Amino acid sequence: MTRYLAKWWTVAVPSLALLALVLSWGRDLSTSGAIVLAVILAGAVLAAVHHAEVIAHRVGEPFGSLVLAVAVTVIEVALIVSLMISGGERTATLARDTVFAAVMITCNGIIGLSLLSGTLRRRTALFNAEGSGGALAAVATLSTLSLVLPTFTTSAKGPAFSPAQLAFAAVGSLALYGLFVLTQTVRHRDYFLPVPRDGRPVSEEEHAPTPSGRTTLVSLGMLLVALVSVVGLAKVESPVIETTVRAAGLPQSVVGVVIALLVLLPETLAAVRAARRDQIQVSLNLALGSAMASIGLTIPTIAVSSIWLQGPLVLGLGGTHMVLLGLTFVVTTLTVVPGRATLLQSGVHLVLFAAFLFLAISP
User: Fold this and answer.
1) How far apart are CA 346 and CA 178, in angstroms?
2) Alpha-carbon distances of 295 from 18, 25, 102, 146, 239, rounded to whole Å
3) So where are the chain's domains?
4) Rounded to an integer, what distance in angstroms lies between the CA atom of residue 196 and that of residue 127?
5) b/e map of 319-346 (b: 16 or more CB within 10 Å)?
6) Within a 10 A sphere around the Cβ of 116, how many other Cβ atoms?
7) Is the Cβ–Cβ distance between 106 and 265 less than 8 Å?
8) Contact 252, 244 (CB under 8 A)
9) Which residues are in the Sodium/calcium exchanger membrane region domain (predicted)?
């Protein structure tokens, strides 16, 4: 194998994770079993990041970021739907909690960590304001339509959409996400490419040999295996998470936060590693693309699934979460518009992320 698959563990760990998923599916986990699965899950996340970077180097940006974001989100949506089907009314807010958590993690956690990593190495992080600004506008629009408006509509009881409103939100979300993908990959691809610094390539990796088609196909297959294993193991661990949350007296919404943290680990690690190579635009592509995919694919799927899902589907956010969401978009706009950021911006995003986590635990 080439140097892109130089380490045996990048193939062995996803295979082990898939085997662990098969053996643990439908079983009650002991404490030691849950710990072992958590270690295997972490290894599968690292392997997923490796294979995603191989694919990204083969297909180039922004296609590489898009592959990882869409792959993770598709499986995340499957996880949400399966948990809602098996959980009944107890999971009425799971889709809302997970999607909101995904937006906060991507727009504050991933962006904050990426800017921190980039600005510690160089004083200023550079990126394309045109592409990142357009992506942020789409994320803000989708978030408001899907998570804020249900709180104020009156056609259905509670913070929920009526069937017609849900159908409109689903079609609108899918259409806007499709338009974003077209813009990112075809019409304005150059807006989403890393910004050269002083006329020089941003990373020596750009001169590395391009992986062969065979290597890329192997990485694509192992990426899918790793991602299925990550989300499947997260589902297996979810009863332990729910039990722990209840035992600690924490709100039910914490379950959605933990699930989002687990499934977004690959994007987080990939974004931070890109930032360390001074490819801040790749980090922003991953962060905003993941937020966009999380909403743009989740809402249409939930709309279709609501045909057979039992119980209410609560999508509207409460007052505290709406304040956090609004502040996040204001701050992210001020970060993105100049096309450059410093250590201060990373600190602001990380403080907002910490506030989100704290208020999730102590509302």
Assistant:
1) 30
2) 27, 28, 9, 8, 25
3) 3-361
4) 9
5) eebbebbeebbebbeebbeebbbeeebb
6) 19
7) no
8) no
9) 32-185, 219-361
CB atoms < 10 A from the CB of 236, how many?
Answer: 21
> What is the torsional sign of CA 278, 282, 286, 289?
positive
Q: 4 pLDDT exceeds 90?
A: no
Dihedral sign computed on CA atoms, order 86, 70, 148, 238: positive
The two tokens of residue 211 are 């992986």
The superfamily in CATH containing domain 3-361 is NCX, central ion-binding region (1.20.1420.30)
3-class SS string, 229-294: HHHHHHHHHHHHHHHHHHHCCCCCHHHHHHHHHHHCHHHHHHHHHHHHCCCHHHHHHHHHHHHHHH
Separation between Cα atoms, residue 259 and residue 234, nearest integer Å:
7
* Strand extents, DSSP E, the chain: 125-126, 340-341
pLDDT at 112: 95
Tens digits of per-residue pLDDT, 176-223?
Answer: 988 888 888 878 778 887 777 665 555 444 445 677 777 788 888 888
341, 115 in Cβ contact below 8 A? yes
Place of tokens 């995603």: 52
Which H or E element spans position 347?
A: helix 343-361
